[in-house]
Each structure stands twice: as structure tokens, then as C-alpha cells.
């Protein structure tokens, strides 16, 4: 079990950089912080495993988490790369079923965990707040629709570009995207289900076209004003 401590004071402002949390009813915001515990993970340590018991709603506070699982061939399949201050875990919170994927620390990582039973007890007395959890689940569903559509229709180079845009925007959690992404080519390959060599080739083609810059351990996305010829990232799926 990862070490845990109470949520530190002053965390509310940082969490409010997430679109979902900032739009939540203030009563729910306050209760999430009151109930939360901070878990401290060392590199490679799992927060939870696929099939594990649903233990709460979570938010990355520092570091990053790799969300994924082994595929049928025994290779790592990466679903998402979560950074501060992204919330997750709402699916198991809502349906009470086991975790759908593994969550593993990518470097030293801190995660805020709101215990499931305590949060459910509060929601029983504040049923209107379930709408807020539904908003979080719907945001993830829209991202899934986009990813499935792109997988079926776009060439790899464009899929790489749009996935980087998605990561930079925190899967819809940030209005202003990050300019620099610390995502290795190996993890990006796992995310898109292709070889590292294919990712390297696609990234170099994107760099040659002026759509990004490659640095050691980082990928830099130019500001829109520096990259006028680039198409906008995919918008929300219909629904």
C-alpha cells in the first residue's frame, strides 16, 4: 500500500486549473478536499492494478501516471498519460466494479485519493452532485470517441500529432495546452499501438514540417502563432 498523508492546505487553487474541478459545485470541491488523502508513489509503483477493488476518485498532483495494461500478445498497451491536475477513477466509483486498467507511477508521483465509501455516503445525502461525476465520465467518453475515429481514419503521422495535442490539453482538462510534453517515444508507441521506429519516423516528419520540435526527453509543441499551417486538434465528439 502506498504511503499516504492528508491533503496539504492550499491545494484547491492548483486543482482549479482542471476544467472539471473548477466547474464543480463548491460544496463538492470542499468535500473532495476534506475526504482526500495524498498517496506518494516511487517510480514504477502501482497506484492500482487492473481488476483491483475500486477504492476512490483520484487526481494526479505531482509527477505522472501511466494508465494501461498488457494486451493479448503480452505487450504494454498505454491508454493515457496523466499529469497534474487530472481527475480519474470515476468509472469504478459510479458502477462499483473493478478497475479497468493499471495505474503506474512514471517517476516520483503524488496522487490525491478520495475514498470511495466516504464519498458515496456524502453523495447519498447530496444526490444532485452525481451530475458532476457524470460530467467527468462524459468528458472521458468524448475523448474515447475522438480516439476511435482517428484510429480508423487517419494516417500515423496525423494520429501522432493529434495524440500529442490531446496529451498537451490533459485529455480535455486544460483550456491552455502545455507547450512541452515529457513523453518518451516508447510510451507514445504503446499509446498508439505501433513500433517505436514508426513513432520516431513520424516525429521526425512532423519536425521537418515545422509542427513540433524534438528535445532530449521532451517534445515541444509550437504556439499556434508559430504554426499557422497546422490543423486544429479534433474537437469533442458528437453527443
From TrEMBL:
<dbReference type="Pfam" id="PF13545">
    <property type="entry name" value="HTH_Crp_2"/>
</dbReference>
<keyword id="KW-0805">Transcription regulation</keyword>
<dbReference type="InterPro" id="IPR036388">
    <property type="entry name" value="WH-like_DNA-bd_sf"/>
</dbReference>
<dbReference type="InterPro" id="IPR018490">
    <property type="entry name" value="cNMP-bd_dom_sf"/>
</dbReference>
<dbReference type="InterPro" id="IPR000595">
    <property type="entry name" value="cNMP-bd_dom"/>
</dbReference>
<dbReference type="InterPro" id="IPR050397">
    <property type="entry name" value="Env_Response_Regulators"/>
</dbReference>
<dbReference type="InterPro" id="IPR012318">
    <property type="entry name" value="HTH_CRP"/>
</dbReference>
<keyword id="KW-0675">Receptor</keyword>
<feature type="domain" description="Cyclic nucleotide-binding">
    <location>
        <begin position="20"/>
        <end position="119"/>
    </location>
</feature>
<keyword id="KW-0238">DNA-binding</keyword>
<keyword id="KW-0804">Transcription</keyword>
<dbReference type="GO" id="GO:0003700">
    <property type="term" value="F:DNA-binding transcription factor activity"/>
</dbReference>
<protein>
    <submittedName>
        <fullName>cAMP receptor protein</fullName>
    </submittedName>
</protein>
<feature type="domain" description="HTH crp-type">
    <location>
        <begin position="154"/>
        <end position="225"/>
    </location>
</feature>
<dbReference type="GO" id="GO:0005829">
    <property type="term" value="C:cytosol"/>
</dbReference>
<dbReference type="Pfam" id="PF00027">
    <property type="entry name" value="cNMP_binding"/>
</dbReference>
<dbReference type="GO" id="GO:0003677">
    <property type="term" value="F:DNA binding"/>
</dbReference>
<dbReference type="InterPro" id="IPR014710">
    <property type="entry name" value="RmlC-like_jellyroll"/>
</dbReference>
<dbReference type="InterPro" id="IPR036390">
    <property type="entry name" value="WH_DNA-bd_sf"/>
</dbReference>
